[in-house]
Amino acid sequence: MSVRSRIFSAMQQIADDQKITLPRLQDDLTLHETGFDSLAFAILVARLEDDLGIDPFTSAEDAAFPSTIGEFVRAYENVPA
Amino acid sequence: MSPPEIFALRQYLGPELKGRTISDARHSVSLTDIIRHSYLIGRSRELSGRSVLLAASGQLLTALAMLELDGVAHRMLLCPPDLDPDRMQGLLEDAEIDAIVTDRPLHRCDDGRYLVVGIDLPERAAVGWKTERVTEWLMLTSGTSGLPKIVAHTLDGLAGAIIAEGPARNQNAIWATFYDIRRYGGLQIFLRAIIGCGSMVLSEPGEAVADYLARLQAARVTHISGTPSHWRKLLMSGAAANFSPRYVRLSGEIADQAVLDGLARAYPHASIGHAYASTEAGVGFAVDDGREGFPVDLIGPNRDGVEMKVVEGSLRIRSCRAARAYIGADAPALADAEGFVDTGDMVELRGERYHFVGRRGGIINIGGLKVHPEEVEAVINRHESVRMSRARSRRSPITGAIVVADVVLADGADAGRREAIRAEILDRCKGCLAAYKVPAVIRFVERLDVTEAGKLARADA
């Protein structure tokens, strides 16, 4: 499974857990539009770290926080696992 | 020189009380005629009025030294087994120690500054001690928050709860504890055995639970205490059925409903109580109704000289059983101006009962929202397939921290159902905890570490 699909699958699971209805996930969707609050993102980042072995927002020196789904996915794709 | 009103352990060691013993895995010593013997070697007569470090390697010799020196020494410092040797010199200075009782060769301290007295089995003829003074009992806090501090008690305060209950209530009991008697919780049980005219079976470091239980059963132990972590370990051992105590006591950590119910199922004929005590505040109260938390009417003054109140969520205790002071240079005040000790244990009123929710220092901060790991563990532990759990903080780049949980499954839990169990645990957490308190990740582990003091190890606390 690609990094992108693992991220989307983790997001879907958290959305189900938190009774959030996710809009269709595409690159230009802003993170705000996903309906995720900061707790949901915190859970997502923790689960992805367990799944992929990386946390791009802590490991990078100049971690710029993404604002869209595309940027979020690229943050994971750009980190050598 | 022997005013009868001074309360010392010696008076509970009369030869008329037959068949009493104190034992560990290797030795058993009769308490019946112990007053006629001494276990001290060398210049033991000079210990009168001294400030004595009890540095015996094991609990049994420490117990024998306490029995001999209470009412004789000016003060006794109990030295727990896991004490960091680098801390020793500072403790000796803080406690103004001028004599050491030990069965070990001394390296660091043997420079003539201290009177060193040996201790060993078997006994010798008695020194003929008389109770001459109120001995100060010094012990160390468990150091869950920072370095251990020395607190000073008197026997009067230490035994306050035992005397208030009426020692005759447990007459001839045979006591045991998972604790080490050189700490407050274990010392309480030792004192119950002595003052209640009973016997005592000591724990051994590193002894397997099944071996310990076999020893308890062989010695016909009737009364036993430990922390909830100790008890969970026993329930997990598969050997719980090989033992049949009449009284089971929990203290030192939050006794949640799951462990109380687990013990009630394992020991249907025992009475099960949980007690609240701290090294500083002494024994606050005991609850015997089998339910977690404590009744709201315990708040306020009670007739046994214990007064409790809740301020800013934490339990405060003013008590004749509290320690008198912290000892040492720069020692902070133990109590506030009104004499209340802030226990740092946070409580929450739910209906007619207060529930412990955790330690003030152990709070996990999730983007400004506070979570006590213990409240999460209490929910997880209610799942029938869970034996014990630890909620902890995991750093998060988003919220600063999130809650994650490590879970040990009960014996017989089907490992193939792990994913189902995980989902059930999460469902229950969602059902009774705010969303930010629900663990973001649940990890199944084989075991969780328990500290020397019998408490769940909280590396991040």
Overview of this structure, please?
The complex is a heterodimer of chains A (81) and B (461). With 81 residues, chain A is mainly α. Chain A has helices spanning 3-17, 38-52, 56-59, 69-77. Chain A has one domain (3-77): ACP-like (Non-ribosomal Peptide Synthetase Peptidyl Carrier Protein, Chain A). Chain A is built from 4 helices and no strands. In chain A, helix 1 crosses helix 2. The longest helix of chain A has 15 residues, at 3-17. Chain B is of the alpha/beta class and 461 residues long. Chain B has an 8-stranded mixed β-sheet with strand order 2-1-11-10-12-13-14-15, sandwiched between helices. In chain B, strands 3-7-6-4-5-8-9-20 form an 8-stranded mixed β-sheet, with helices on both faces. Chain B folds into 2 domains: 9-294, 3-Layer(aba) Sandwich (Rossmann fold), CATH 3.40.50; 363-444, GMP Synthetase, Chain A, domain 3. The interface between A and B is medium-sized, with 15 and 16 residues.
Which keywords apply here?
heterodimer, A: 81 residues, mainly alpha, Non-ribosomal Peptide Synthetase Peptidyl Carrier Protein, Chain A, 53% helix, B: Rossmann fold, GMP Synthetase, Chain A, domain 3, 2 domains, eight-stranded mixed β-sheet, 10 helices
What is the element layout, followed by pairings?
The complex is a heterodimer of chains A (81) and B (461).
Chain A: H1 3-17, H2 38-52, H3 56-59, H4 69-77
Helix pairs in contact in A: 1-2
Chain B: E1 21-23, E2 28-30, E3 37-41, E4 51-54, H1 59-69, E5 75-78, H2 85-94, E6 99-102, E7 115-125, E8 136-140, E9 150-154, H3 155-158, H4 160-165, E10 174-177, H5 184-195, E11 199-201, H6 209-218, E12 223-226, H7 228-236, E13 247-250, H8 257-266, E14 271-278, E15 282-287, E16 294-295, E17 300-301, E18 306-311, E19 314-319, E20 325-327, E21 341-350, E22 353-359, E23 364-366, E24 369-371, H9 373-381, E25 386-396, E26 400-409, H10 418-432, E27 441-444
Parallel strand pairs in B: 1-11, 4-5, 4-6, 5-8, 6-7, 10-11, 10-12, 12-13, 13-14, 26-27
Antiparallel strand pairs in B: 1-2, 3-7, 8-9, 9-20, 14-15, 16-22, 17-18, 18-19, 19-21, 21-22, 23-24, 25-26
Helix pairs in contact in B: 7-8
